[in-house]
Design a protein that fits this description.
- Belongs to the major facilitator superfamily.
- It comes from Pleomassaria siparia CBS 279.74.
- Keywords: Membrane, Transmembrane, Transmembrane helix.
- It is found in: Membrane.
- GO terms for molecular function: spermidine transmembrane transporter activity; spermine transmembrane transporter activity.
- By secondary structure, the chain is mainly alpha-helical.
- It has one domain: Up-down Bundle (Growth Hormone, Chain: A), CATH 1.20.1250.20.
- α11 runs antiparallel to α18 and α19 runs antiparallel to α21.
- The longest helix has 63 residues.
């Protein structure tokens, strides 16, 4: 026992020396293991060296047995607090470690992916399904329509408030506990909205429903980065990113169907049905995927000295203070200090806010210009859904025929992994998605505004919605994968949490003035104004293509695994 413990301590010391210090002085090293297994062993000799942890257990036992006499005579002293291994010293047992989520079976990986995507679908479906009923709720409670719109928008503010809590907590305690606690609470608050006695209660309940739905949206990209290596990440990530856009497209249609015949309160029961099918049933079988949590559990089972995290060693009031001042500060700090995060988050948040502005404006446009009822207006959102589906297919082909060949070429030529990145090829290889998506958004805005204003056949503005959905998904996909490849699972989750803050704050704000803007400016000029702003945003991916490498190398959050 003493021999094996000494061997483990020497190996831990070797790993700790070879691990670069992490920014922000976090308790988990961000460089303990590269995300991409194809680039995990880049070294000076022929580009590859084998880590000590890749030796088989049998080899270690043989070497320990051979050196037992030497160690019994000159063994090191018992570990002191200064020499106790840190979490940074823990790593997988070689590249084929079955505990590593990258080595899970394809069935398990896709189950986790589908469950994560289902959580995101429910979170956004709940935001838009209430749209057809907001004017009816305002009428029932004797409130102005603007207050009814507030009941719709407040859900987005809940998503914005919950995002900063979700990602850091998942990085401390793991993904599964956060999902397991937050989503049932989300269902309870949605249940409450169906029994709301007045508008104030409805607004408060929808805010808390959004608060507890936030983990399903802010943790998803980090969860998939845990499971899939970068060169295989595009297909599952495209599914995950598509579902938050399909949810808003399905919400107005299904919400209008139940509202017309059963009343606005049935939108709550509709959301609960989706929650039971996509959340309550699959989540109990959800498996933890976050690397530091998995390695700490293994170390405890093996009886190895694993230090407590700072949060575990603090009293509860200090834990709250730590979250408020340090842990929760990371997403906001990245939003305002990381140019990559700031630029991409601002662009994707603007596009997302346009999406939610249209949920308020589309009913007015189609009912005023075309005389549609609520159900017919809901059907027009299928154009948005069609664009999202086309975008998902396009992203798959982009991954298969553009990105993966780049990865294979890099491996075949033994090219070194890019600096300040967690992928085998530079993150700029993801940007063509945004190059295509930006113009599609602009085309969709101009086409919708001018065709609807002159009452061209309704199929034309519906096609414009498809362009908008395609562009919005493509831009967001490019942004998400660029950020994930740059910052990895650890800081990537926090970067996407900051993305959620900005997206949902703007998404809550835009619907409050969207209808007034369309009424006062006219449909064509309102869309022209938004289209011109989208042209400015479309420049962001091109700027990062030119200056992204330098910005990554100067980042304070380099390579978070």
């Amino acid at each position: 026992m003493r021999s094996s413990r000494s061997s483990w301590l020497r190996e831990a010391h070797y790993r700790a020396q070879s691990t670069a210090p992490s920014p922000n002085n976090g308790w988990v090293s961000t460089t303990a293991a590269p995300t991409d297994p194809t680039s995990s062993y880049v070294g000076p000799e022929k580009g590859r060296t084998q880590p000590m942890s890749s030796r088989s257990p049998g080899q270690e036992r043989d070497q320990n047995s051979a050196s037992v006499s030497k160690e019994t005579t000159s063994s090191p002293p018992p570990p002191t607090p200064a020499s106790t291994p840190t979490v940074a010293a823990l790593d997988w047992d070689g590249p084929d470690d079955p505990l590593n989520p990258h080595n899970w079976s394809e069935v398990r990986k896709w189950y986790q992916t589908y469950t994560t995507s289902g959580l995101a679908l429910v979170g956004t479906f709940a935001s838009s399904a209430f749209t057809p009923g907001m004017d009816l709720a305002a009428e029932e409670f004797g409130s102005p329509l603007l207050v009814g719109t507030l009941a719709f928008s407040i859900y987005q503010l809940g998503l914005a408030a919950g995002g900063p809590f979700a990602a850091p907590m998942s990085e401390t305690f793991g993904r599964r506990p956060v999902y397991f606690i937050s989503m049932p609470l989300f269902g309870l608050f949605i249940l409450g909205t169906g029994f709301a006695p007045n508008m104030a209660a409805l607004v408060v309940l929808r805010f808390f429903a959004g608060l507890f739905a936030a983990p399903s949206l802010s943790m998803g990209s980090g969860t998939l980065a845990d499971i899939w290596p970068p060169e295989k990440r595009a297909a599952p990530m495209s599914l995950y990113v598509a579902t938050p856009f399909l949810g808003p497209a399905l919400g107005p249609l299904l919400g209008a169907a139940v509202t017309r015949d059963l009343g606005w309160r049935w939108t709550s029961w509709l959301i609960l049905f989706f929650t039971i099918v996509l959340v309550v049933l699959p989540v109990p079988f959800y498996i933890e995927s976050y690397k530091p949590v998995l390695l700490r559990r293994r170390a405890k089972k093996r009886g190895l000295p694993v230090p407590k995290s700072p949060l575990e060693s603090l009293p509860w009031h200090k834990v709250i203070s730590t979250y408020a001042t340090t842990t929760l500060n990371r997403p906001l700090h990245m939003l305002f200090t990381e140019p990559i995060v700031t630029a991409f988050n601002a662009y994707s948040a603007f596009n997302f806010a346009l999406l939610y502005a249209f949920f308020a404006a589309f009913p007015w446009v189609f009912q005023e210009e075309y005389g549609f009822d609520s159900l017919s207006t809901g059907l027009t959102f299928l154009g948005l859904g069609a664009g999202v589906i086309i975008g998902t297919i396009g992203i798959y082909f982009f991954s298969t025929y553009y990105y993966r060949p780049k990865v294979r070429h890099s491996i075949a030529n033994d090219e070194p992994a890019p600096k300040a990145a967690t992928s085998r090829v530079a993150p700029e290889a993801r940007l063509p998605l945004a190059f295509v998506g930006g113009p599609c958004i602009t085309i969709g805005l101009f086409l919708f505004g001018w065709s609807a204003a002159y009452r061209v056949h309704w199929i034309v503005p519906t096609i414009a919605e498809a362009f908008f959905g395609l562009g919005n998904l493509s831009v967001f996909m490019g942004c998400t994968m660029y950020i994930t490849d740059t910052y990895g699972p650890l800081y990537g989750a926090s970067a996407m949490a900051s993305n959620a803050i900005l997206r949902y704050v703007l998404g809550a704000t835009f619907p409050l003035f969207a209808v007034q803007m369309f009424r006062n400016l006219g449909t064509q000029w309102a869309c022209t104004l938004l289209g011109c702003l989208s042209v400015l945003g479309a420049c962001v991916p091109w700027v990062l293509m030119r200056f992204g490498k330098g910005l990554r190398e100067r980042s304070g959050y380099k390579r978070g695994d």
